[in-house]
Each structure stands twice: as C-alpha cells, then as structure tokens.
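fwd from M.: "can u put these together and see what the complex looks like"

so here's what she sent:
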Amino acid sequence: MESPSSCPTPDHEAHVSRLTDWTFRLRALFGRRSLEQQIDREFAFHVQMQAEKLEREGWSLDAAAAEAVHRFGSQTRERQRARDSWGVSTGYDLISDGRHALRQMRRRPGFTALAVATLGLGIGATTALFAVVYGLLVRPLPFRDERLSMFWFDYSWRGSEYDHVREGSLAFDQIAAFSTWAEAFRTGQAEQSRMLSYIPATANLFDALDVKPALGRGFLPGEDRPGAERVVVISHGLWQQDMGGAADVLGRQLIIGGQPVTIVGVMPPGFYFPTPEFRAWRPLTLDPADPGYAGNGWLALIGAGKPGVTPAQIDLELKRVTRLLGERFTYSTVWDKTRNAHVSPMREYLLGSVRNPLLLLMGAVAMLLMIACANAAALILARTTDRTGELAIRLSLGASHGRVARQIVTESLALAAISAAVGAIVATVGFRTLVSSLPLKQGFGAAVSLGWQAFLIAFFLALVVGVGVSIAPVRQVLRGRLDGRERTEEGLRRGTRQVHAGLIAGQVTLAVTLVCGATLLIRSVERIRAIDTGFDGRGVVTIDLVREPGTTSGSDQEFVRAVLEGVQALPGIQSVGVTNRLPVRDGGWQGSVTIEGRPDLAGAQRPNALHRTATPDYLKTLSMDVKSGRGFTDADRTDGELVVLVSESFARRIWPNESALGKRVAIGGTNAPWRTIVGIVEESRMTNMMGDIPSVLYLPVAQFSGPRAGGVLVARTSTDQAAALASIRDLVTGMDRRLAISRSTTMEAVVNNALAEPLRLRFFLGLLAGLALLLGAVGVYGVVSYAVARRRAEFGIRMALGAAPTTILTHVVSGGMLPVVLGASAGIFVSLGLSRVVRGFLFETSPTDALSLVTAALTVLLAGVFAAVVPAWRAGKVSPVDSLRSV
Amino acid sequence: MSSTSSDVVRGTLDMLILRVVAKDPEHGWGICERIQQLSRDALHVQQGSLYASLHRMTREGWIRSYWAVTANNRQARYYEITRAGRQQLRIESEEWTRLANGVALVMSNA
C-alpha cells in the first residue's frame, strides 16, 4: 500500500516502536495461519455488512451479495497486500525456500545422507577439538598467568639454594618454591585413610600466584620456618567432596601423614596449581638444621615477574642467580645449575606437551572438514547443473537471478544446519572420548568442558560451510548461465567440469597429506612397540601404598615384610616385591654418586643415577635379570653389610675395563656410608619409553631410610589380574586402617599409558586419514558418475559408431583420474612441506620417509581408480539405443 | 500497487483512519462508513485497500486491534488508537493543515 505511506512525516521513524514492530513481525512469521484466518473473517464481515446495507437500499438478496463482493475488489489481492504490509515476505520466502530445500533433500536421500554425514563429522570433530583447545590453550589459568615463570631444573632445587637466591631480585616480585607430595590423610579418627596429593610450598606461594583463598587466609610469612604451626589450605573440591562442604571448615583439622593439621583456608572453585590433581597446599619447612635442607634437590622454583619486566632484564637476573649459586655451591657436571639457566612461561611449562599434539590434530581435522566441504560443494554443483531445467523454468517464470541464487544458498544452508545438528551430537558424544584419549596431565581432563562457545563455533562453521559450498553453483546462476537457451551449451558443462576437477584435486591433496601423516605415525609406533623395556609386565599387577607413620602395626620395615608375606600367600601369586618408583611411570629420585677411590669422578665429575629401592623378589617379579653377581636376599638388612646393585650401563660407564662387583659407592651427603656393589642388573626403561636409558642404583628396601614417599607393590600373578588386585587391596587395608592405597592397575596398562601419546595420535590420525580416504573416494566416484551421466548420449553414439566398451572405460577413467593424479602429486609436496611439523611426533622415523609418502600417494590413487572405474564400467555397459533414447 | 487517489486524497488515508478511531474503537467496515458519512459522501475509501493500511498501521504501533461483538451480535475486529497513534495523528493533522492552507493561498491569490 503505497499511498498512505508515501507521505511520512520527517520524524516518522521516531514514532515507530521497534519492539511493537518486531513482535508483530515475529507473530506474523510464526502465527501466519491464525493471522490469515483473521483476515478472512474480517473480509467476510465487511462484505456481509456491505450486502446488508445494499439490501436496505433495496437491492435483492442475491444482487446485494454479488455487488458487495464486487465492490470489495479482489480479496486475493487485498489479502496479499495486507500480508505484504506485515513486512515479513522475505521471511515467508525463506520458509518456503527452506521447505523446498527439505523436499529436495528427501528426494535424494543418498546424496543428503552422504553430505550430512561428511559435513556433520567434520563439524563435530572440529567442535570437540576446539572445545579442548579452548579449555587448555585459550582460557586463562586459574592463577596469575602472565609474568609467571618456571625456573630451570624443576623439582631439583635444595632448600639451601632457594634461600640463597630468593631475596634481592630485580626482575621478580616473588620467587616461590614448591614441590609435590602424597601422603595418607583422613578427616577424622574413625575414617579410613586415603591418599592426598598436595603441594608443599614456601609461604609466599599465593602471593606469587596472585590468588586469595575464597575462605580464610593463605600462608603467613614465616609459616615456612621451623616451629610454625602446622596449617593447610584446601581446594574447593576437597572441602565439598571430602568434608561435605562443612560450614565450620576453618579451624578444623585434617590428619595428614599421622599429624593433625589445621585448615586455615579454602581456595575458590576451579582453582588449581600446578595441576588439578593436587588438592591441598601446605607450607614446607626450610630449616637449615635439617639435613634435607642441603641434601637432595626436590623443589621447583617459580618467579612472578615485576610489571613491565623485559626478557633482557630476566636474563640479567638469571646471570645474577647463577653467579650467586656458583659462588656458594659446587655442582657435578650433569647437575650444574649454573649452566643453561632459563625460565619458561608457566602456561608453556604446564601445557607445552599438550599444545603440539592438539594443534596437529586441529590441523588434521581442519583438513578433513575442508575435504568434506569440497565433497559437498561438488555434489551441490552437480545437482544444480542437473537442475538447470527446473531453474531455467523458474527464471523464465519471472524469478530473479538473485532469488534463484538465494534458493541455492538456502538449500546449502539447510544442509549445513542439519550437518551442524549432527555435528553437535558427534561433538557431545565424542568429547569425553577425545578428552580421555588425549595425553593430558592428570586432572586436566576434568578442567575442560564442552561449553556454549563450542556450539557457537559449530554454528559458525555451518554458516561458513553453507555459504562456501554454494559459491560455485551460485556463480553459475549469477552469470546467467542457467538461462534456458544456454542450457545445452558446452560452456556450462566445461565450467562445471573445471570446478569439479579443482575440487577433486584439492580433496586428493589433503587426503594424501593426512594418509601420509598417519602412515608416518604408524611406522613410528611400530618402532616404539619394538623397544625392549628390559622388564616383562605381562601378568604383573601394581598398587601404591602409603602408610601413616606412627601407627600400631610396627615399623615400616616390619610392615613391608608382613605385606610381602601376606601377599605371597594369596592364591595365584607367584612373586611379589616393593620398590619406591615404578618403571616407565614414576620419575624423580635421582642424585649424584660418589665412587670410592676415584678422585677423577669426584666433585663436579660425579656421575648421576636414579635411586630405586627393591625387596629381594622385586627384580624377579618384573622378570629383570641379574646379569652377574647376586640379587638382594633377606639377609641384606641394616645389621648386615650395606649393598647395592647397579645397572649395566652404569657399570660399563664407570668401570669400562673391569668388573664393577665388589666396588664401593656412596649416595647422599658427604658422610654417607659406602655400599658394596654385589650385582649388575639388566638394562631397563625407567622414567619413560623413548628417552635415553638412565643409569640406576638399586638399594635394598631394608637398608634404605630416605624420606617416606610411599612404596609401590608389584606382584606377578597366574590368575585373573583384577581378582588378584582386589584380594591384595583387601589384605593390605585389613592389615592397617591407616594405610592409603591408590593407582591399583596392571603393569601392561602402565606401559600402554607411557606410550599413550604416540598411540593416541596414531589412532586419531589413522581415523582421520581413513575418513579422508573414504571421502576422497566418494568425491571421485560422485564426480566421475556425474560426468558419465552427462555424457551418456555421447557414449551411446560412440559405441553405435563402433567404439569398444573398454575404450569408453579407459577414456572415462583417464579423464576422471587426471585431477586425482595432480592432487596426489601436490599431496606429496604438501607432505614434504609439512615434514617439519610432524618431525617432533616421530620416533626413529624420518618425516620424509619415502615409503610412507609413496604408500600414501598410492593408497589414494588406488582408491581414486576404484572410485572412477565403477561408474566408468557402467558407462561401458550402456546400451547405445537406451542412451540415445534418453537424450 | 494502485493508488486510491480518486477516492481519498493521496496520502491522507492514515490520517483519516486515525481521526475516526481516535474517537471510538471501530471495525473496518465502520471506518469506511464513518469517513463516507463525515465527508458527506465526498470521500470513498476503496474498501479492500483499507485493510492493508490498517495492518500496516497496526505494525507501526499506531493502532491495535481486538475482536469483539457488534450491536448486531456479530464477531468483528475493532481497531483502537494508541498513544503513538495520537501523536502521529497530531503530526499528520498539522502537516495537512499547513498543506491545505498553502493550497488555499495559492488558489485564492493567483
């Protein structure tokens, strides 16, 4: 209705209530049927009133009714005009386009399922991975993030060193020290003890982290000095889960390691430091009178940089620190803190190991999504070209090019929207699996979640995908190529063919790259699998035991002996042993070794070795051989001769030309006693699967009285491992209520966990590569099928003129394979270009490994040939008569 | 869209409708009749096109509608003016007066 609205006053807009306008429009859009019924009723009322008036003026009943209808004018047109005045016709067009799109999809269920499945998978995988990346790499850490640095030689600083360097820093506001510890704890006298992993730290830890407890206080200055009251700050989780969120938590006591400790603070929810597995923070005690103060290093140092501090200033500061250290302490070469001084940003230190695999996977998933998009674009383009007739009719009936283009975009968007829904489901289902499969440090899995940001990304991806895949067909429409007259022109087909060839080549390039990456990882994992760990974990179960000191069931030594006897007597147990650190899982506990009569290996030249304790049957339980000499026996006790076993590499390194047996070594401080080497133990993996094999010293549990960090029990069983674990758990907890157990598992699981990162990466990349291969093949198949279908008539004529079916087949396959071959070659180059990216993930495998490259390219080529042959073979079977008839 | 200028002076239909419903709520038919009556049959609203205006003005928020029973016990849709509508009516009346005066001046002095 132009006339009334054609004279709006200048401030017309000001009087339009936006809200009224939009609520009206929304109502019109969604309550369309009711509005239209109202219009009909309104019109009917009007006509009736008019008729009655005419009757009163003397018209006959029928004539009045007819005249009233006539005077009203075209009801259809008025209805349309009323509808137009609602300002929602674009919305109606969209809805009708959407309905049309859905009808189109239903008509081609195969096409739709394929496109939705591929796009959904791509969107879902990207969404889930994004959520992980966001949670770990983007979201801020729950403490001062910037300017917080980890010092070199983590968990290796002595209290004396820390005290020497902590003050007077020009670059750092605070330098704090902390370590990790686990002890048995309970909330009350009657409770069963459980394991508590916590952080002993200097009193300024929370200042350095720049966080405050949600309840109570942090540490007071001086609480890390001898004589201070024993206090603890607990995590929100510990408060809620283990203490039921008790309101009077402050001032209550926890029994940690047998000692009552007062709770003075509760941290806010979501806080963790350094990782979520640690649930409490206690002041450590820096006591120069304690032999541990200047003993083995166990602390990690963090520095909170002053505002605006530059890397150059930090370098200067590190020079100052190393000079201070060099003046005061003497270091062995391998343990020299005055060399290689550096700090790493906290985030990098904590998450650096996760970042690269995550980004690698993210890249791989992005490639898969691109392949899926190329696929969908090719399918939509083919379909649009096939619908030239339909679109041409619509154009000739007066639809604008823009309107037709909009319809194509709507169809693509509808497809993308459904794919996004599928993707959201894929992401939700796959997220936890993904998180549990990533090599995350303990506890971080729980710290990431699939938030709304992820779904926003899914939605955004769908939008981009929807618009992206419709570019090619829309371009054709806008060029006017779908005009009825041009329908048969070669140009259209050639255009489609070129775009198709480009899409296929792109897909194949990405597929080859993914398959190549997966092949490299598979070969790398084969190499890792072939590593000889030096022990046999099959049939071995393991469990951590931490005992609360000062309980009734005797000394630690007696307790260990009782546990060994008890477990040995259980059915199905072949042998059992205890150590302080489990191979390929636990690190730490290493130090320098003094060799008797070797001044050349004194001072800075002292060798370094891992310190591992063992009971007599420990080595036997893990099937580790004593190569010469003897193992430990029950006679190796505190009252006997002090003995030690060394690993082969240690023996070879120190005594290359003579036997190590009978030589004497000392560990620990200057007055440490000499221990006689009585045996040489087979080389084995200790702290990890892939690094250098370290030197190891084994000490009898009975002769070792280091700090108590609990023991690890290993038992070889001939029966079911789960049942054996259960009976061991029952036995040991029954022996001592003040014993906390944790990490009961099988040795095979421990080994697999040590291999987790490469195994998982291989799994994911393998999966992505498999999908890429499948999608690539589907793409080739679809495009070749389409080309064949378009050229049925041509083939018919050729065959009628005497071409052999094999000629047609060769022709089609070679035509279809050209972009595949191009793409595969490009893929090899891309893989070579990306070799630097994957190098860090490979073990003893070259990233330019020719076999992997060739395998990848050939696999994709084969898939391509197969995908092209099927439709080509069908083309060769076409009866000339049929194909000509179908023109 | 065809113009209704032969019946109602171009651009004044909104103002006329607002003026009618400013007094009392009225249904579409009644509005046609009132305009005809008040103008002593000088103005004829083309009946069908009235509704497009009514719906657009509802969307603008100048009037709102509700269903009610007429004196003859029939269901009819009534339109009533809103505050925004009264303001709009004032603006359009002023504009109209200015325009009409202008035309009158030209016609009487030329």
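replying to her w this: The beta strands of chain B are 26-27, 63-69, 75-81.
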